[in-house]
Amino acid sequence: MDGKVVVIGSLNYDIILKTDRMPLKGETHSAESADCCCGGKGGNQAVQCAKLGIPTYMSGHVGNDCNGDILIQGLKAYGVDTTYVKRASAASGMGIVHTLQDGSVFATITRGANHTIETKDVDEIAHLLDGQTVLVLQMEIPKQVLEYAIKTAAKARCTILFNMAPAMEFDETYMKMCHYLIMNEVEAQFYTGKELTSVPVAKSELIAFAREMGNTCIFTLGKQGAMACRDHEFHYKESFSVKAVETTGAGDSFVGGLAYGILNHMDLGRMLDFATCCSALTVQNTGAQGSMPDIRAVLEFYSRYSK
Fold first, then answer.
1. Are the beta carbons of 85 and 60 closer than 8 angstroms?
2. How far apart are CA 290 and CA 143, in angstroms?
3. CA distance 281 to 57
4. Beta bridge partners of 96
5. What pLDDT sits at residue 304?
6. Which residue out of 123, 130, 231, 252 is catalytically annotated?
7. Where is K(+) bound in this sequence (predicted)?
8. Smallest Cα–Cα separation from 113: which of 40, 37, 49, 7?
9. Residue 43 annotated as binding site
10. Cα 22 to Cα 4: distance, rounded to the nearest angstrom
11. Is 237 annotated as ligand-binding?
12. Could you tell me if 91 and 63 are in contact, meaning their C-beta atoms sit under 8 angstroms apart?
């Protein structure tokens, strides 16, 4: 595999509460347990890429606090290059995650240091961007930084993988400059303006959306699988029948799998299969980064699936 991944994005210290249900308004409800781990969409996606054996660079901000120490150490432990992770005066970003017995997740994040990222941070990693690089972006950092990163990467002929999560208003001019747009069913409904009530409806909306954007668009649909469309090419992959312990990080694992597929010149269908394997392995454990599979685990799972 030639090439590398550069991630510009968020880093959060996550507190994961396992609970039988969400609390009611005004109620104090006891969780079954609490775990703390490193997270943030940017950090998670960087870790999954590194675990798949991709040379991976992370650009982001953490606070000058103990959580910032933990976040940087976590990235390094998985082989992510943290040269471009900076300290900010704001507190490190944080995520509070409620995970239910069926594996579903409800999460709230604080912006913290993630929203101190500036365009000059993009300039500092610009020398890493070239035709052999996949730039991975998400929407937990300032919008103007994302726009500037897309413009910078486009000039460098870099492949741009944009995970449009969490959903927010964004100029379509920049969306069309990206090579891949990835979103889950909630985000897809936000950007298409349509309710994705079934797989056939999602397929119709995806094809129309990809045609409008002029690039490769991917919808992840949770238990219903994932689908991808590029020009007149369409692929649908059902989800694997695995026991979901928790879905935190599943989407980020999927993005890492896509980056691996791009750098290994997989066709769109195979890339979708590979990314789905990554997610299927991630949901079988608690937490995001620790649950994400390494390349050996994915290839073994993928080999069994292929047979």
1. yes
2. 29
3. 23
4. 15, 108
5. 84
6. 252
7. 248, 282, 285, 287, 291
8. 40
9. yes
10. 40
11. no
12. yes
Ligand-binding site membership of 131 (annotated): no
**Closest CA relative to residue 246, chosen from 51, 97, 71:** 97
Q: How far apart are CA 200 and CA 148, in angstroms?
A: 36
**Residue 13 assigned as binding residue:** yes
3-state secondary structure of 163: strand
Q: Give all domains of the chain, ordered by start, each with its CATH number.
A: 5-9+40-60+118-306 (3.40.1190.20)
pLDDT at 242: 83
Q: Of all helices (H) and strands (E), which one includes residue 206? A: helix 199-213
| Tens digit of each residue's pLDDT (9 = 90 or more) over 21-78 | 999 999 999 999 898 889 999 999 999 999 999 999 999 999 999 999 999 999 999 9
Q: CB of 160 within 8 A of CB of 154?
A: yes
Q: Name the nearest CA neighbour of 254 among 61, 262, 67.
A: 262
Cis omega (within 30 of 0) on the bond before 166?
A: yes
Cα torsion angle, 258, 137, 7, 133, sign: positive
Give the count of beta carbons closer than 10 Å to the beta carbon of residue 228.
24
The token pair at 158 is 């870099």
204 is written with which tokens?
A: 């119709």
Active-site residue flag, 252: yes
Q: Two tokens at 99?
A: 């995970």
Is 248 annotated among the ligand-binding residues? yes
